[in-house]
Structures are given as structure tokens and as C-alpha cells.
């Protein structure tokens, strides 16, 4: 019988010794693989299998290659994301856009401004149908007898200082207000949410009726122009203050657009009130003025303090204090000094 030479092979592995014999031809020799590829039974018992990474192969032994992640800049944006990018460029300075986009979503939708618009449209249709008119361009007796309209001789009914915003005098009146408040209100509510937009809108409505009761005390009042002008005033102040941080061409366009719209509307109100001799509806420019002042004060604080604690902002208390003082003065004026019956 032929004899073979046996060679003892030992290799250290973490302080442990193991013996292995490999037959190479007529002799036994040490394998060529490194000792790092071997583990003792004790070491294998200490390994947590759940923590091991799976082999990058499928059940047939083919290697699996994970697809590289698409860069954020090359990723296609959805419809909602594109809309929010446009809103951030339109409404916010550059240093706040990234923070807005991180938490922006279309849920919940801008519910306040949508509900207010639906309510105003529903009231307009109700009075147009309930009190048949010869034409819908202007509504006359139906709205002036409404319990929602602000009338000087019914000013003791305090809800009229707010409810007049639901009543409009004609198609031109309501279409203009709805278009403006939707164009401005929806983007503003996406950025600042419903509470802030609602507070600014309602402060403009109240400021408009109170200003009219003081400076134009014998005139009735309908329409949501006070709230719309509050949104315009707040947005205008935000555009002016943050002009250097916005896109220059966009900033100039926004400011000029607001000046042209407000100037044209005020000019039309002055013409209808003081120059035109028709006996139709007299437009109250005082309510517009009260609304825009409320927007440039209260609205400026809410719309410029994005992602900030309002209660810690001294501008907030200054504007709120001034608005409350104006309300108190207007209430006392209507009780003791108003020439209205």
C-alpha cells in the first residue's frame, strides 16, 4: 500500500485553533484561502442572523443591482408640487421657500376662502331668484330689505356689521369680488392657512362697515369689498417689505398690478359717488378704504410673520391694540355721536 504524508495545518481565528487537512496530489497541504474566511462553531453561535445583510442575489443565483436613486433636481414634480413651487415664488421671500415646500401639501384645501365664496354666491342667487328682477345686472329691493344688509337705521343689529359681506348688488359686483378674493385668498391660505386668512378677511369686513358708519353714516352697505381689500392690503405690504428678497421682475409686476387694480376701483367708486348723476347704487369708497387699512396693518403682521410666534412679535400687539381701539371708538361713536337715525 502506498503511504501519504500528513501535514498538520493550524490557523489562528480570533484566538481559536482549528485543524484542517487538504489533500493535494499525494500529499496534504494548507488551502490557499486566507484564514479570515473561516469561523468556529462558537463564533457562528454568537452571530445574529437577522442583523446580517442578505446576499445580493436572487433565488437563481443572479446578482441583484439596486437602481440608483434619481437626484432631487431631476425628479419630475407632480401637479400639486408644481403648484406649491409657483405659490412659494409668488408669496414668500427666498429664505422661507424651502421651509414652506418641506411641509406644503394640498390637504387640507384652502377651505375658508372657498366656503366664504360659496356662501356669497349662494346668497346672491337666492335674492335674485326670491325677488325676481327685470335683469341680474343690479338687484334692488330684494337686497335692501334683507336682514343681512348693513343699514344705518338698523345698526343696533350688530350682526349686520359682518353679514353685509354676503349680499351683493349685481353680477358685476359679485364677480369682481369673487375673482379677486379667490386669486389672492387661495395662495395666501395655502401658505398661511385658514385661521390667519380668516382673521385678516373678517377684520377688513368689520373695519369697512365701522369706517362707513363713521365717515359715511347715512349710507347702506353691501358687498365683501372690505374683506377683499384687506387681503389686497396685506399682500401689498408683504410684497413691498420683502421686495429685495423676491424675484425682481415678479415683485415689480405684483406691486404695479395691485396699484392699477386698487386705483381703478377707487376711481370708479369716486365717479359713481360724486360725479355720476344717476339714481342707481352709490358705491361706498369708505368701506374700501377701511378694508385696505386693516389689511396693511393686521394683514401685514399675519402675512409677514410666516413660521413665527405671533404672540412674541411686538408688531402683532401693536396692530391688534390699534384695531381694538378703533373698534371701541367706532362703537361709542355709533351709540352717542352718529347723525344716523
Could you explain the architecture of this structure?
It is a multi-pass membrane protein. This is Rhomboid-related protein 2. Residues 156-304 form the Peptidase S54 rhomboid domain. The protein has helices at 41-46, 79-91, 94-103, 111-130, 141-144, 160-163, 171-215, 225-241, 248-275, 285-304, 314-337, and strands spanning 22-24, 27-29. It has 341 residues and is mainly alpha-helical. The protein has a domain at 109-337: Rhomboid-like fold. The termini are far apart. Mean pLDDT is 75; it is low at 4-25, 27-38 and 66-73.
H-E order: EEHHHHHHHHHHH
Q: How far apart lie the N and C ends?
A: 136 Å
Q: What is the overall shape? A: globular
Question: What oligomeric state do the depicted chains represent?
Answer: single chain
CATH architecture heading of the domain at 109-337:
Up-down Bundle
The H-level CATH homologous superfamily of the domain at 109-337, spelled out, is Rhomboid-like
DSSP E strands, number: 2
Number of helices: 11
Under CATH, the topology of the domain at 109-337 can be stated as: Rhomboid-like fold
Based on secondary structure, the structural category is: mainly alpha
- How would you sum up the major sheet? 2 strands, antiparallel
Low-pLDDT runs: 4-25, 27-38, 66-73
Beta-strand content estimate: under 5%
Rounded to an integer, what's the Rg over CA atoms? 37 Å
| The first-level CATH class name of the domain at 109-337 | Mainly Alpha
How do the strands line up in the largest sheet? Answer: 1-2
Average predicted confidence as pLDDT = 75
Helical amount among residues, as a percent range?
A: 55-70%
Amino acid at each position: 500500500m502506498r503511504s501519504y504524508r500528513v501535514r498538520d495545518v493550524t490557523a489562528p481565528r480570533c484566538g481559536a485553533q482549528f485543524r484542517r487537512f487538504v489533500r493535494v496530489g499525494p500529499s496534504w497541504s494548507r488551502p490557499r484561502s486566507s484564514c479570515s474566511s473561516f469561523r468556529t462553531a462558537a463564533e457562528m453561535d454568537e452571530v445574529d442572523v437577522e442583523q446580517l445583510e442578505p446576499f445580493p442575489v436572487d433565488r437563481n443565483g443572479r446578482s441583484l443591482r439596486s437602481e440608483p436613486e434619481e437626484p432631487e433636481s431631476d425628479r419630475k414634480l407632480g401637479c400639486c408640487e408644481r403648484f406649491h413651487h409657483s405659490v412659494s415664488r409668488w408669496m414668500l421671500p427666498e429664505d422661507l421657500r424651502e421651509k414652506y415646500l418641506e411641509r406644503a401639501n394640498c390637504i387640507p384645501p384652502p377651505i375658508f376662502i372657498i366656503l366664504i365664496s360659496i356662501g356669497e354666491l349662494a346668497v346672491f342667487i337666492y335674492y335674485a331668484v326670491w325677488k325676481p328682477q327685470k335683469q341680474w345686472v343690479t338687484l334692488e329691493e330684494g337686497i335692501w330689505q334683507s336682514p343681512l344688509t348693513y343699514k344705518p337705521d338698523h345698526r343696533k343689529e350688530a350682526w349686520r356689521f359682518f353679514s353685509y359681506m354676503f349680499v351683493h348688488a349685481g353680477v358685476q359686483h359679485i364677480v369682481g369680488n369673487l375673482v379677486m378674493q379667490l386669486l389672492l385668498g387661495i395662495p395666501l391660505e395655502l401658505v398661511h392657512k385658514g385661521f390667519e386668512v380668516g382673521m385678516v378677511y373678517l377684520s377688513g369686513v368689520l373695519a369697512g362697515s365701522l369706517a362707513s358708519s363713521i365717515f359715511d353714516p347715512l349710507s347702506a352697505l353691501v358687498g365683501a369689498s372690505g374683506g377683499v381689500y384687506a387681503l389686497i392690503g396685506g399682500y401689498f405690504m408683504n410684497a413691498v417689505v420683502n421686495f429685495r428678497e423676491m424675484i425682481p421682475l415678479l415683485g415689480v409686476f405684483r406691486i404695479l398690478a395691485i396699484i392699477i387694480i386698487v386705483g381703478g376701483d377707487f376711481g370708479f367708486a369716486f365717479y359713481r359717488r360724486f360725479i355720476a348723476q344717476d339714481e342707481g347704487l352709490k358705491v361706498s369708497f369708505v368701506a374700501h378704504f377701511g378694508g385696505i387699512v386693516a389689511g396693511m396693518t393686521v394683514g401685514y403682521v399675519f402675512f409677514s410673520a410666516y413660521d413665527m410666534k405671533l404672540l412674541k412679535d411686538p408688531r402683532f400687539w401693536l396692530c391688534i391694540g390699534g384695531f381694538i381701539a378703533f373698534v371701541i371708538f367706532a362703537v361709542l361713536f355709533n351709540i352717542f355721536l352718529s347723525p344716523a337715525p
